[in-house]
Amino acid sequence: MWAASCLASCCAACACQACQSVVGGISRRSARIAYCGLFALSLIVSWILREVAAPLMEKLPWINHFHQTPNREWFETDAVLRVSLGNFLFFTVLAVLMIGVRDQKDPRDRLHHGGWMMKVISWCLVVIFMFFLPNEIVSFYETISKFGSGLFLLVQVILLLDFVHGWNENWVSKDEQFWYMALFVVSLVCYVATFSFSGLLFHWFTPSGHDCGLNTFFIVMTLILVFIFAIVALHPAVNGSLLPASVISLYCTYLCYSGLSSEPRDYECNGLHNHSKAVSTGSLTLGLLTTVLSVVYSAVRAGSSTTLLSPPSSPRAGSAKPLLPLDQKDQQEDRKKDEPRAVTYSYSFFHLIFSLASMYSAMLLTGWSTSVGESGKLVDVGWPSVWVRIVTGYATAALYIWSMVAPFLFPEREF
């Protein structure tokens, strides 16, 4: 008995020491990766609880206090929303705490990059506490999550527009024949992929023998937008290029596909998954992995933006007068060493993006809170998901066209 107790104590100590080593090994450079890992963990927990927590939640009186017990899908959706609410509160509190952090000497800089054992424990406690809240609070969070998810999708669109315009300007600024050819080749590849993909959409989602006018409208409208992008980009009054137009065209076509593929499995015009009543574990895992990568990329790229946090620029080392005595130069160098280093991105905005991403991931896992799909086995399936994708595509088109014509319409303003 003593040996077993000693062995158990040693194992617990080793496990604790290993956990502390992992948490302590998170450096300043890897802090953002650690936050991404914590967010991915929240998605995994949501997925697991969606599958197994319903029977347990039915026994909790403050959750199941209805005259008639709701169906299983209600409890599955409620479990996902409660984990999402905990995740949202955790990152929102961090976002509020990090408002105004401008240099690395701020004590909150250490909180952002360190204290991981405390943060992981806090995250667990917050998520657990969510399961003791009344249903009215969760229902309110469900409502605002739809708007928060829309904001997150808007952030994704703005990031994409910023990326393609920056990509184009970078290659054009090189002013070499090779890079001009590269611009042409990439644009051509994107347009070939766009029109080939559109042909597949007609094949998959407008099967013969069925009235699929809505799907046909979505696909044709996307193709019309593709031609409008090219016309606007090539107009002599607009300082445009085919590279951003081709990339946005391919992205809008992908959004059209994503929307059409989210149609219910029993919908007669969904030829891609027609008569498929369930998806394999591999397909579900791939869908969640794609969601995680998309959310993490948006959070990291948006949070790394310095537009909302412009640290005061420090004077250059070479700006000192060359004829100053050596002791004055040494004093200036010492002062520069003591000056706090400005942070490279907005910590508050970084956590805010994860808060919005928590709402968005909850909507994906619950079919935008209408139901969790067929027996809880499908992700991001249903008419709400279809319309969200389609509207996002139209919003992308509108923002891209505006980014092209706004400098022409308002030449006195800087865009």
Secondary structural class: mainly alpha
Per DSSP E runs of 2 or more residues, the count of β-strands stands at: 0
Number of separate helices:
14
Radius of gyration: 26 Å
List keywords for this structure.
415 residues; mainly alpha; 70% helix; flat; disordered N terminus
Describe this structure in words.
It contains 14 helices and no strands. With 415 residues, it is mainly α. It folds into two domains: 191 residues, no CATH class; 141 residues, no CATH class. The longest helix is centred in the middle third of the chain and has 39 residues. It is flat.
Write the layout of secondary structure elements.
Elements: H1 2-24, H2 31-52, H3 54-57, H4 72-97, H5 107-113, H6 116-130, H7 135-173, H8 177-205, H9 213-234, H10 242-261, H11 281-303, H12 326-338, H13 347-365, H14 383-409
Helix pairs in contact: 2-4, 2-11, 2-13, 4-6, 4-13, 7-10, 7-13, 7-14, 8-9, 8-10, 9-10, 9-14, 10-14, 11-13
Q: In a nutshell, what does this entry contain?
A:
Helices cover 70% and strands 0% of the residues. By secondary structure, the protein is an all-alpha fold.
